[in-house]
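Review form for a predicted model. The reviewer records the input and the model, then writes brief findings.
Reviewer: anonymous (R2)
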Amino acid sequence: MTPAELPFLSIKEAAGLIRKKDLSPVELTRAVLVRIDKIEPKIHAFVTLMAEEGLAAARSAEREIARKKYRGPLHGIPVGVKDTHYTRGTRTTAATPALSDFVPGFDATVVKRLKDAGAILLGKMALPEFSFGGLTPGSYNPWDLSRTPGGSSGGSAAALAAGLLLGATGGDTTGSIRGPACYCGVVGLKPTFGLVSRYGITVISWSLDHVGPMSRTVEDNALMLNVLAGYDPKDRSSVEIRVPNYVNAIGRSVKGLRMGIPRPSLFEGVHEEARKSFDEAVKVFRKLGLKIREIDIPNMREAEAAQRIIRISEASAYHETFLKNQPDRYGPSNVRRDVEAGSLITAAQYLRAQRAREQIVREMEAVLDKLDVLLIPAESEPAGEPQRGRYNFKSYFNLTGHPGLAIPSGFSNSPAGLPVGVQVVAGPFEEEIVYAVGHAYQSVTDWHTKHPPL
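Model under review:
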């Protein structure tokens, strides 16, 4: 294998080679850094590149492995984290002038867990200011450099697609892991609310924010979630449950599982290419033996309205100090406008939105009680195309807290060559079944193996 091929190894492949000492963490990290040096000027996926720190960590990993102190499948694997994740001694800017000089004194829990697993942190990934918005300004989609990689975890998705990392983390409040994953043709999981700690992560909305893994394959995603998931007493929303080995779901039979798909009326405004890809994915799942039926997703418009009110209200509370002490240090985005608008939401309006949320969760649970999984579009259109879908298939599950896995399901023909994807949703803490279904799809398709012609 040539050095140019190493950055496109899956985590599983690279881990196998490292464990057998057929590949060293230093060799892999250097190959990825060479790739970054060549491609990053086209993509702008990084806010901060940590090359020296990464090489030092790779040398340390190499020494540990030589002493038979192998920590697991992420040991020696180059990864990145969204630049909302606190990193001790390294700037955490959230892409805003208000935090341009902020250097945390501790690592976010997810960063600490990655480091404890032996992962090589190579950098902080690009995002829109304070994670607001579905675009990542200044970053570019590796499949078409004139288009967006999506947002807010656009840097993580673009870097994975371009071979600049083997794994990454993202944040998801309104679909910000799943959207960029779809636009860039990679895999992204929004886990169940409370499964992955958010301690040490810049906030948008305390009750809607999720943190999760991004990767190029479903199996790699499961490997990462094994490290990231688990109770954290420092996060008050963290749930204390038994965390399974998610990799055990890989290869599990999905024959006979009940899959719900939206009724045709819910596809109003969905781009023709996204709809065609979805229909083809349904055919694949039928061949895999899943039992598929059309269902209604309850109160989608009401869910979108409730999610918006809750999001900007809670964001306003978080931003109160910024607005009071440094109102002029926001960038040219609409963040200040949005958080100021959130301050105008009354307590009664916020509580009505939360009550509506409770009802929507109950109704969605009733739907999922009759299903094993739900399949919906990951995005309503390819990257950069007009957003005309009537319903938001992503933010609904930020409101309900259910897990959603975005997987690539093809490429558009018009416009040509842009990734499209589908999303697999299940009940709370049912990430295993989501991974089983996602991997079953990837075992009989090859969309996830394609790389952009950079």
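Findings: The first strand starts at residue 46 and ends at 49.
Further findings: The chain has one domain: 1-292+374-454.
Recommendation: see findings above.
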